[in-house]
Amino acid sequence: MTMIDIHGIQPGWEVFDATGAKVGDVVSMGPNYIHIKTGGLFSKDFYVPATAIADVEEHRVELSVPKGDVSSQGWDKPPAETVSSGTGGGADAS
């Protein structure tokens, strides 16, 4: 099993699902996840763990899950370790 290096990923890169459908764009990176924002009228933020990234190429990230499954993975909140890292954004943020 090859570990994907997510440290070269940059904001603005496009994110695609396992079938090649565009999911969104990279907003930022954490130590073990990427923060992406979906496009469209009902855009959402997701914090995709590195374990769900299948491939990384220049300006392109491919996930190992279909687009329809992204919203059901519980990735709509930052991972717990990032909340306690002093980045702010307490539970009261709306």
How would you describe the overall organization of this protein?
The chain is mainly β. The chain has a domain at 14-69. Helix content is 9%, strand content 33%. It is built from two helices and six strands. It has helices at 67-70, 80-83, and strands spanning 14-16, 22-29, 33-38, 45-49, 53-57, 60-63. A six-stranded mixed sheet has the order 4-3-2-1-6-5, with no helix packed on it. Strand 5 (53-57) and strand 6 form a beta hairpin.
Please give the number of β-strands: 6
Distance between the termini: 39 Å
Helix share bin = under 10%
Supply the helix-strand structural class. Answer: mainly beta
Mean pLDDT: 85
Major sheet summary line? 6 strands, mixed
Tally of helical runs: 2
Task: Report the β-strand fraction as a percent range.
Answer: 25-35%
Unreliable runs: 82-94
The coarse overall form would be globular
Order of helices and strands: EEEEEEHH
Taking all Cα atoms into account, the compactness measure Rg is 13 Å
Strand numbers in spatial order across the main sheet: 4-3-2-1-6-5
List keywords for this structure.
9% helix; 94 residues; globular; disordered C terminus; mainly beta
Topology:
Blueprint: E1 14-16, E2 22-29, E3 33-38, E4 45-49, E5 53-57, E6 60-63, H1 67-70, H2 80-83
Parallel strand pairs: 1-6
Antiparallel strand pairs: 1-2, 2-3, 3-4, 5-6
